[in-house]
Design the sequence.
């Protein structure tokens, strides 16, 4: 069976870092015009492989063949000259420059004038349905629009291989739909797309082929349309997957957390102000807050944890007590536990051991400190209890927090908070960047905690997660919070529309929604 | 293709944290060897004159301890602040204020004192240093002013204040208008600890500071908070640690210890207040703190080493006729090699070209 010459053919790519084999004889053939998924858990070697393709890193052994010819890709310039474009997960845009200026900064061809470039930007964005005004400033754009800037920047250089790294993690479902249309149109024109994601349903909807990496090796190549999300996940983790069990909602008790007409002001440019946010979480239930990042999540988390204090102390109540004026320590003593979105650098100190990180928040509700002296023996046994009960994979309580994988560190942090028997737990992005096995364990722990009578508030961008976990869901958009809806009475699509800004009948945020056919 | 290359370690090497200061000392000695050779001296003799001769007598050892005392006292305090990212650069000024206030008490009770004068002077020294360090603390918390600049600038204010006092109220009435105070009375002088040397009670304070600093940083919850704030301020905010309190605490502590060191100089080896109390102990203590890895025990060793460079430099001037700059050259080489060797904590040196995986 004669197959066409692959656009890019990787043969036997091996890359070793001190202490780990990131890629182990990886073979990967990307055909012209196909949308090829690269799947794998964190640490499976996806990013390393992509960096080798894009010339950021170099393989220790193995060869790259571009359209049948062996090539060396020494740096990203060389990659772009071959026709490889990449859209990174984190954008590299200057807020205060216009779209056209940003694109001019990032392309190889420096000769074109800004005016000519604007014309070309308009042409490309019309052709691929990527509505974009070259003269707008980036700070004015939504996250989805910012991503379009990055995509258009790649498309202007007529790529024949486009690499997309986790492109949908910041998009609403509707924006995802539009992105997929663009990608399909590109593929139909012969462009090859390498699509990196851990969202299995998206891969099943979009991709023609999938290559699964595990521990640096290719473990499977398959047609994702013929697989189920579950079978793909099991290929990724190599064992069968348990799905969290959610018992019928228990009877909920008294309100543990009440937020009443909370508004914040900020003097930081581009930060979001909270506007009249009200919510209530009762004992035994899980409330989810959906929303695209940057819509006030960080501000809400800080106001609830006590890291920013509220002028009106009655805007936040824990078990009916006004706490707006209390700092994190006092709120913890009242029964609040808290898992921040940034786990390394806020939820844990990278350079400190797990024992010391257990002490970081454990001091407030566990007997770890007596008259100013730290009881390190107790901190150690507390850390060991967390490691044990939450199956944290590590070489012991002395391990530095940064030596743990994202999933294991998150299990440790969530375990540390749960073992304090909180009356109220607030979690930001519980499973962001966490592998499937750890995510399932974390979900189960949160559900069990709520069923045990704790009030749980989850702030997440991942709608699938919110629907698995939550009894009720609200949406945060531009600093405003929608009223909550019981999760069995709503759908991903409805929440997606709210995430795009369609609620409260407000006309001020025209949003993306108007353009959805 | 280079024969030597640096390869990142997976984890910072703990052994290297302690080994690099030793390596830096060895490299400094090796460079000193070459330097003396180039200058036409017998390098072995010269190094002997610099590093061994000065401490081969009991008196010499005593001088080493006398010089190390203020360095260690100040270094321990500064290191605790540095751990919390509080950069007190103005220990020299706090030292001066300690001497002014503590020494001032000694002068005030001249002629009608008692045993209680000395404890009062010690307290005054500590209070003077704290007062001077409280200014940058307040400015930092109230106006977000960098303590690096304010504490440094206050050093010069302190030196001018000293100059004014020594030419005015503090001047010895029977001193023929020399800018010096009276000699302190025995009741106002730190007692000697070892016969035949100038080692005084201040050295005991320095040892206590080392022990106290060690307990504070490794055993207490305050020490834990200091470390977390220094490593990851966001995590400290998350945990609910009061950063303002830590800024106050570390500045007052380092200022108080510097003030104590200043009092120790005037009420110890100098015996009076003079226009030049310190040959820059407050600044050298910054090097001592880093050379000692911000760890109290390390600072004790680093303080002795830096003290040796001071007295070795003096000996070299006398024995070899070298200029005074020799002290600075050796201190500079030591810091330079330490910073250069620190790369080994995160990287290892490999021989040969990049390894190709089989």
Sequence:
């Amino acid at each position: 069976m004669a197959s066409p010459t692959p656009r890019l053919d990787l043969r036997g790519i091996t890359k070793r870092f001190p202490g780990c084999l990131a890629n182990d004889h990886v073979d990967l053939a990307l055909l012209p015009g196909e949308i090829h998924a690269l799947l794998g858990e964190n640490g499976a070697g996806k990013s390393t492989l992509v960096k080798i393709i894009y010339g950021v890193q170099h393989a220790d052994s193995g060869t790259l063949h571009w359209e049948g010819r062996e090539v060396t890709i020494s740096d990203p310039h060389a990659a772009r000259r071959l026709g490889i474009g990449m859209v990174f997960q984190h954008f590299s845009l200057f807020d205060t420059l216009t779209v056209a200026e940003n694109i001019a900064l990032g392309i190889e061809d420096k000769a074109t004038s800004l005016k000519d470039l604007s014309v070309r930007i308009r042409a490309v964005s019309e052709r691929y349905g990527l509505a974009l005004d070259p003269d707008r400033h980036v700070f004015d754009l939504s996250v989805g629009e910012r991503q379009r800037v990055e995509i258009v920047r790649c498309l202007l250089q007529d790529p024949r291989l486009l690499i997309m790294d986790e492109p949908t993690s910041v998009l609403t479902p509707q924006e995802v739909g539009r992105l997929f249309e663009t990608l399909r149109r590109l593929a139909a024109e012969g462009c090859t797309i390498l699509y990196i994601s851990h969202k299995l349903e998206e891969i099943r909807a979009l991709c023609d082929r999938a290559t699964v990496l595990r521990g640096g090796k290719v473990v499977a190549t398959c047609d994702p349309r013929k697989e189920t999300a579950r079978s793909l996940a099991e290929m990724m983790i190599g064992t069968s997957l348990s799905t969290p069990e959610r018992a019928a909602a228990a009877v909920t008790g008294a309100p543990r957390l009440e937020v009443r007409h909370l508004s914040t002001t900020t003097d930081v440019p581009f930060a979001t102000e909270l506007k009249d946010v009200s919510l209530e979480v009762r004992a035994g239930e899980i409330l989810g807050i959906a929303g695209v990042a940057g819509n006030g999540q960080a501000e809400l988390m800080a106001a609830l944890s006590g890291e920013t204090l509220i002028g009106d102390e009655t805007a936040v109540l824990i078990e009916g007590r006004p706490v707006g004026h209390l700092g994190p320590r006092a709120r913890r003593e009242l029964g609040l536990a808290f898992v921040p979105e940034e786990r390394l650098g806020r939820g844990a100190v990278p350079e400190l051991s797990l024992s010391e990180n257990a002490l970081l928040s454990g001091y407030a509700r566990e007997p770890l400190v007596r008259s100013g002296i730290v009881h390190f023996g107790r901190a150690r046994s507390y850390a060991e209890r967390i490691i044990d009960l939450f199956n944290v994979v590590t070489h012991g309580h002395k391990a530095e927090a940064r030596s743990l994988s994202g999933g294991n560190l998150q299990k440790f942090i969530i375990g540390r908070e749960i073992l304090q028997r909180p009356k109220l737990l607030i979690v930001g992005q519980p499973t962001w960047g966490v592998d499937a096995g750890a995510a399932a364990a974390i979900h189960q722990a949160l559900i069990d905690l709520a069923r045990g009578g704790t009030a749980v508030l989850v702030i997440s961008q991942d709608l699938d997660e919110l629907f698995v976990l939550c009894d009720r869901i609200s949406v945060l958009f531009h600093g405003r919070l929608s009223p909550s809806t019981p999760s069995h009475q709503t759908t991903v699509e409805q929440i997606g529309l709210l995430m795009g800004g369609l609620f409260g009948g407000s006309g001020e945020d025209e949003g993306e929604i108007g353009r959805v056919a | 293709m280079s024969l030597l290359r640096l390869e990142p370690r997976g984890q910072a090497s703990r052994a290297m944290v302690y080994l690099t200061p030793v390596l830096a000392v060895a490299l400094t000695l090796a460079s000193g060897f070459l330097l003396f050779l180039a200058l036409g001296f017998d390098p072995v003799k010269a190094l002997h004159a610099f590093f061994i001769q000065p401490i081969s007598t009991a008196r010499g050892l005593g001088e080493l301890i006398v010089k190390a005392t203020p360095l260690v006292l100040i270094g321990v305090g500064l290191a605790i602040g540095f751990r919390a990212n509080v950069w007190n650069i103005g220990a020299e000024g706090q030292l001066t204020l300690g001497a002014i206030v503590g020494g001032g008490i000694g002068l005030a009770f001249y002629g009608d004192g008692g045993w209680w004068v000395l404890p009062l002077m010690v307290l005054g020294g500590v209070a003077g240093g704290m007062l001077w360090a409280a200014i940058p603390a307040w400015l930092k918390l109230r106006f977000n002013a960098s303590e690096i600049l304010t504490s440094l600038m206050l050093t010069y204010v302190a030196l001018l204040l000293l100059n004014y006092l020594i030419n005015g109220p503090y001047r010895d009435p029977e001193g023929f208008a020399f800018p010096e105070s009276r000699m302190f009375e025995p009741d106002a002088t730190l007692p000697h600890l070892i016969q035949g040397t100038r080692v005084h009670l201040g050295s005991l304070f320095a040892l206590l500071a080392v022990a106290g600093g060690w307990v504070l940083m490794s055993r207490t919850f305050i020490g834990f908070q200091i470390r977390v704030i220094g490593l990851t301020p966001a995590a400290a905010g998350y945990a609910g640690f009061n950063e303002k309190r830590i800024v106050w605490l570390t500045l007052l502590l380092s200022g108080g210890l510097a003030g104590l060191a200043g009092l120790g100089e005037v009420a110890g080896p100098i015996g009076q207040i003079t226009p030049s109390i310190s040959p820059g102990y407050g600044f050298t203590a910054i090097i001592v703190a880093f050379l000692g890895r911000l760890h109290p025990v390390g600072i004790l060793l680093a303080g002795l080493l830096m003290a040796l460079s001071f007295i070795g430099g003096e000996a070299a001037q006398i024995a070899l006729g070298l200029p005074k700059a020799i002290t600075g050259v050796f201190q500079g080489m030591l810091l330079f090699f330490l910073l250069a060797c620190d790369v080994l904590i995160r990287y290892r040196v490999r021989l040969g070209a990049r390894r190709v995986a089989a």
Summary: Chain B touches chain A at residues 7-11, 219-222, 224, 227-228, 231-232, 234-235, 237-242, 354-357 (CB under 8 Å).
